[in-house]
Design goal:
The complex is a heterodimer of chains A (111) and B (491). Chain A is mainly β. Chain A has a domain at 17-92: Roll (Ubiquitin-like (UB roll)), CATH 3.10.20.440. Helices cover 10% and strands 23% of the residues of chain A. Chain A has a 5-stranded mixed sheet, covered by helices on one side. A two-stranded antiparallel ribbon of chain A has the order 3-4. In chain A, a hairpin with a 6-residue loop joins strand 3 and strand 4 (55-56). The termini of chain A are far apart. In chain A, 50% of the residues are buried. Residues 1-12 and 98-111 of chain A have low confidence and may be disordered. Chain B is an alpha/beta fold and 491 residues long. Chain B is 33% helix and 20% strand. Chain B has helices at residues 19-30, 64-79, 151-161, 178-187, 204-207, 215-230, 277-281, 321-338, 345-368, 393-401, 408-415, 428-438, 445-452, 462-470; strands at residues 9-15, 35-39, 83-87, 90-95, 104-109, 121-129, 133-135, 148-150, 168-174, 191-197, 235-236, 241-246, 250-255, 260-262, 265-270, 272-274, 286-288, 294-296, 309-311, 384-386, 391-392. In chain B, strand 1 (9-15), helix 1 and strand 2 form a beta-alpha-beta unit. The longest helix of chain B has 24 residues, at 345-368. Chain B is globular, with a radius of gyration of 22 Å. The model of chain B is unreliable at 472-491 (pLDDT under 50). The chains are: A mainly beta (111), B alpha/beta (491). Chains A and B meet through helix 2, strand 4 and strand 6 of A and strand 8 and helix 3 of B. Chain A: The chain crosses the membrane at residues 24-46. Chain A: Pfam families: Fer2_4. Chain A: Residues 96-111 have a biased composition (Acidic residues). Chain A: It comes from Streptomyces niphimycinicus. Chain A: This is (2Fe-2S)-binding protein.
C-alpha cells in the first residue's frame, strides 16, 4: 500500500528518510508517522496552545485528540500522528490554533 | 481511479477494520453480499491488531493467528471482487434521504490533506458500524505536559511506528490494558518504573474469575504476569497518580502516597471510550454501559434501533477482541439473512453463546477496574479538563456556581469544554462526570450524549462541504482549504 518499503527493505538498516523540522534535520524510518519520527528524535512538542501558549505534541497518538497538529510542507493543521513520514518533508511548528498564522477557526462558535 | 458521478452501491458498508469490522466484512462477503470495508487505518487490524508493514501481529500472541486468518480471508474476498477494501478512508457523514428506508450515502475523505482518496462517496443498503474505541482519559494536574500520552498512543507508537515514546516510563490508570503497554515498553528497552493501578486489585488473576469460560484470557493474564516479572516491573495497586510534574515537559509523577517517580514518559489509561458519532448520526439509540461509557443499543442480532444499521464490537460495549469478532460475524449473518441468503442457524446460536460469555467476562472486568470514585477530588482550580479549549476545572466550577450550568449541554455553551478540535472525544467523559458531580448527581447517558454527538465524524474541508451543499457531482477540488466547520457544537 505504501511505497515506503521500497526505500528500506530491512528494519535493521539506517534510517532512510531525511526530513526537516523548523530547518533542523530529522531522520525517519519508513512507515513512521512524522510524529513518531519527531518523538524518536527527542522532540516532544511542536505546537503551542492558543490561550496559554503551552507546548503540545503527541497525546492520543491515534488521530483522536488533535493535540499534535503540525505544518507539513506548508499545509497547516495536519495530525502528526497520522501523516506518514516521506523523504524531504518540511515540518514546522505551529502556534495557537493549528491554522497557521493569522487565521481564526478550528473552534465552533456556530449554533 | 476516477470518481464516477454515481457512487457505487453495496449491499453493506462496514465501517472499521478492527476485530469486529474485519469479521463482519469477511463474513458478509463469504455469505455472498457485495461489501465495502471502510477504515481510517492504513493497514487492517484496528487499534488492537495494529502493526507496521514489516511486523504483522505475532501469530503466537494475542489472537495473532485469528488475525492472520481474517486477513487472509479479507484478501481472498478482495481477489474474488466481493469485498471493496478502502483503507485510509474516514467516514465524515452518513445520510439517508428517505428516513428508515432506502440506501445510505457515506461521504469519505482521507486522514490528512494529501492522503490518496480512492472514493469520496459510497452508497450501501445496510451498515455495520464497528467504530472501535480510544483510551478513556481523566484529567490530572499536569496531564497536558508533553511526554504524557494515552496508553493506547504509546502502544500505537511501539506497534505501528517502531518508536518508544521515552526512556523512563510510568504507566498509570486502571485496567488490564496497562500491562501490555508496560511490557511492550520494557521489551523495547524502556525502563518502566511502575504500573500504577488505581484500583485495589488483590491477586488480579483471581479477579478475572469471569475468565473461567474464556480460558484464553487466563492464559493471556499469566503471560503478562510472567513478562512483568521478567522485566521487574512493579505492579502497584491502589496507586493513583495525583499530579504530573514538569514545566515544559514531564519530569515525573507524584503518587497519592506522596512518593515521586522521575520519568520522561507517562502513559495514562482509564478503560476505553467507544466512538459513538456514527451511531448517533444515524439516530441509533444509545445507553450507558457498565463501565460508564455511552454505547449503541443492539438486539440479539446486532441490530441497532435504526432499520438496516447494525453495530458490533466496542461500539456496543467495551469487551475485547474475541467478543468483537463474534459480534461482527453475527452481524454478517443477520445482514445475509435479511438478503434471504442461506444462513446456518446453529452458527448464529453458537455466536450468541460466545457473545453472552464475552459480555459476562467484560462485566467482571468493568467491576474490577472501575473509574475510581472520587477522582474529581484531585482536580485543582487550574487543572485543564478540556485540552483543546484549555478549560480548567475552576472554570467549570464557576460556570456551575455563577452561571447555573447544570448539564453538559449548558456547560459546553457557557464554558466551552468539548468545543475544540477534538469535539469532546478526549474530555467528554470527564466533563459529563464533573458536571454531574458539581450538581450532586451521578452521570447518566443524558450527560454523555451531547458530548458524543458530532455534526461531522471527521475533519472536513470547505470544498467537501460546498460540494455537499450544491449536490455537485464533481469531487471537491480544493482539499487544501481547511474549514472551521469541524468545530461546530451540536448538530
Amino acid at each position: 500500500m505504501s511505497h515506503a518499503r521500497s526505500e528500506c527493505g530491512t528494519r535493521s538498516g539506517a534510517p532512510s528518510y531525511r526530513l526537516t523540522f523548523d530547518g533542523a534535520a530529522v531522520t525517519a524510518l519508513p512507515g513512521q508517522s512524522v510524529g513518531a519520527a519527531l518523538m524518536a528524535a527527542g522532540i516532544v512538542s511542536w505546537r503551542t496552545t492558543r490561550r496559554e501558549g503551552r507546548p503540545r505534541g503527541l497525546f492520543c497518538g491515534i488521530g483522536v485528540c488533535f493535540d499534535c497538529l503540525i505544518t507539513v510542507d506548508g499545509r497547516p493543521g495536519q495530525r502528526a500522528c497520522l501523516v506518514p513520514a516521506r523523504d524531504g518533508m518540511r515540518l514546522s511548528a505551529e502556534g495557537g490554533d493549528g491554522e497557521g498564522d493569522g487565521e481564526g477557526g478550528g473552534d465552533g462558535d456556530v449554533d | 481511479m476516477a470518481m464516477s458521478t454515481d457512487p457505487p452501491m453495496y449491499d453493506v458498508a462496514v465501517v472499521g477494520a478492527g476485530p469486529a469490522g474485519l469479521s463482519a466484512a469477511v463474513g458478509a462477503a463469504e455469505a455472498g453480499l457485495d461489501v465495502a470495508l471502510i477504515d481510517a487505518g492504513r493497514l487492517p487490524g484496528g487499534q488492537y491488531w495494529r502493526h507496521d508493514d514489516e511486523h504483522p501481529p505475532h501469530p503466537g500472541h494475542r489472537d495473532g493467528r485469528l488475525f492472520a486468518r481474517l486477513r487472509a480471508r479479507l484478501h481472498h474476498q478482495r481477489r474474488l471482487g466481493r469485498l471493496h477494501y478502502l483503507p485510509g478512508h474516514q467516514v465524515w457523514l452518513i445520510d439517508r434521504p428517505r428516513p428508515d428506508t432506502g440506501p445510505f450515502t457515506l461521504r469519505l475523505n482521507g486522514p490528512y490533506d494529501t492522503a490518496p482518496v480512492e472514493r469520496d462517496r459510497v452508497r450501501a443498503r445496510a451498515l455495520v458500524l464497528c467504530c472501535g474505541t480510544h483510551d478513556r482519559q481523566l484529567p490530572i494536574p499536569g496531564w497536558d505536559l508533553p511526554g504524557v500520552m494515552a496508553a493506547g498512543g504509546v502502544q500505537a507508537l511501539l506497534k505501528g511506528h517502531r518508536t518508544a515514546a521515552g526512556s523512563r516510563a510510568v504507566v498509570a490508570g486502571t485496567g488490564p490494558f496497562l500491562l501490555p503497554v508496560a511490557t511492550g515498553l520494557a521489551q523495547a528497552g524502556v525502563r518502566v518504573l511502575a504500573v500504577c493501578e488505581a484500583n485495589p486489585v488483590h491477586g488480579w488473576l483471581r479477579h478475572l474469575g469471569g475468565a473461567a469460560r474464556v480460558p484464553a484470557k487466563s492464559a493471556e493474564a499469566l503471560r503478562y504476569a510472567a513478562l512483568m516479572a521478567r522485566h521487574r516491573i512493579p505492579y502497584r495497586t491502589r496507586a493513583a497518580v495525583t499530579e504530573i510534574l514538569g514545566e515544559d515537559r514531564v519530569r515525573g509523577v507524584r503518587l497519592d502516597s506522596g512518593e515521586v517517580l522521575e520519568a520522561d514518559l507517562v502513559a495514562l489509561g482509564w478503560g476505553f471510550t467507544p466512538a459513538l458519532e456514527l451511531p448517533l448520526m444515524v439516530g441509533a439509540d444509545t445507553r450507558r454501559d457498565l463501565d460508564g461509557s455511552l454505547v449503541a443499543v443492539v438486539d440479539t442480532h446486532q441490530r441497532t434501533t435504526v432499520p438496516d444499521v447494525l453495530a458490533a464490537g466496542e461500539t456496543t460495549g467495551v469487551g475485547g477482541a474475541a467478543l468483537a469478532v463474534a459480534e461482527g460475524r453475527l452481524a454478517a449473518l443477520t445482514v445475509a439473512a435479511a438478503h434471504r441468503l442461506p444462513v446456518d442457524p446453529r452458527a448464529a446460536r453458537r455466536l450468541r453463546a460466545t457473545i453472552r460469555h464475552g459480555r459476562a467476562f467484560a462485566a467482571a472486568l468493568h467491576g474490577t477496574y472501575p473509574v475510581p470514585a472520587g477522582w474529581t477530588d484531585r482536580l485543582t482550580e487550574r487543572t485543564v479538563v478540556c485540552r483543546c479549549e484549555e478549560v480548567t476545572y475552576g472554570e467549570l466550577c464557576r460556570a456551575r456556581d455563577e452561571l447555573g450550568a447544570e448539564d453538559p449541554r449548558t456547560m459546553k455553551l457557557l464554558a466551552r469544554p468539548g468545543m475544540g478540535w477534538c469535539q469532546g472525544r478526549i474530555c467528554g467523559f470527564a466533563v459529563a462526570a464533573v458536571t454531574a458531580s458539581l450538581t450532586g448527581r451521578p452521570a447518566t447517558a443524558e450527560d454523555l450524549r451531547p458530548l458524543s454527538a458530532r455534526p461531522f465524524a471527521a475533519l472536513v474541508t470547505l470544498g467537501e462541504l460546498a460540494e455537499m451543499a450544491d449536490g455537485d457531482e464533481e469531487p471537491g477540488a480544493d482539499a487544501a482549504e481547511e474549514s472551521g466547520a469541524d468545530g461546530d457544537g451540536e448538530p
